[in-house]
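Exercise: predict the fold of this chain.
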Amino acid sequence: MRKAKPFLPVAVGLTLALLLIPSPGSVARGDLIEDQDLNYEIETPPGWVRLPKNDTWDKYGIVVGAIRQLEKLKDGSPTKGEGAQLHLAITDLPEGKTLEDMGKDEEVRGFLMRRFGDKAGTWPEVSMVCDKYDSGMEICILSADGKAANLTGKEAPVRAVLILSTAKKKLFKLRLYAWHTEFDAEGLKGDLDMIEMSFDIPDLRAEPEKEDPGQRPPDEPEPEDAPEGDEGEEKTFEDEVVGWKIVKPVGIKSSDTYDKERYGDVVVWFEDNDQVGSYQFIFYIIKRGRQNPETGLAIPDNQLRDWGLDRWWPAFDKAHPTGPVRTWAWPRKSKTFLAIPNWEKERVVFATPKKRPKKPGKVKASYLVKKMKVAEKAKGDKLGKEKVIEGYRGVLGGNRERSGKEVVIRYIWGTPRLTCFISISLSRGAPGKWGDKIQKMLESIEMTGRHRGR
């Protein structure tokens, strides 16, 4: 799982940057601009809109643009061209050149600084800071302050920022301008900071080197390191007294480091992460008719829809505040309702955060099933020896802050004695890497019933 980016000492001080970041309880929502083929993600703050493609973009390698135009200033006065703008260009990285070389290159700097004039001698001073994130993404940020033509063509104070990064022999150039008032009451410079922190290149893997066809058979795959330890073993987890069984295949890691007091109803937990993505598989089982050990009073049984679905959307909405919300169709033929979604059949539920329900806490299971169509009721399935009394499954995909794309899947069902719940989280490239193994594990689940004599 990708770790959070460190703050870089550009644009504004750390204290101001922190003040501009919304608290988790009231996250300001923008839009996620992304392209998997071109390998980029940019999250824009509220008020930004994408620009239509311009005929001149191809000349500079520009692939996307966005703009924030103000209707009026914070004090209510009319604007005079204040606003902000971004363009992302992707070009070939010259052979043998480093990212820092590109940051010092006059032509690269000109992509940002020609707004101040055609000749480098007329440009304001440029500062450059380079760093490397925990994800492995290297970045150089160039910044300058001066006066340049604003959104209406008038010369005005501007902060200019150029974010440089590389991947797969490509140079990424994210250009940002903020034409601001004296004290920036409109928060335009803060917008640039937030965009800088959100900019991501999801796939940093090196391009495979081209081989001489005579060296090895053309279709022979690269050998992979065999999994070791727990990951390299097939394991069966079973409780004959409670009545359940699941088989962990090779390639899946079991975990016992979770908080067992907090997650006392968890029977098995699997998780792993690498540069491709991450997965988490948690299986809960609760006995019906339990009693409080201290008072001896009966504990109310969990209601399936309430436990698995009624409180799902508010939590998902809060954890994935930006970008579109997606769902996927379920496979038509599967052994049980415990099946991984069909990743080829994707549907956008809400294209932008503004289209989501205005009151997340009011979204209940019936809305998820009938309106959003991201969940459905299981039909007469059997899991091993026992028939499912009532079951549901649902899938939602969104953009988790700092982690990127995430898919969350839920399965809930009951038996005469048990209430069962599985939660699966898959981030970035996890569906492709671990999807088949997780499907195999789901198909192995059996409700074995209470064994005689126990």
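Check your answer against the key: Residues 370 and 420 are 23 Å apart (CA to CA).
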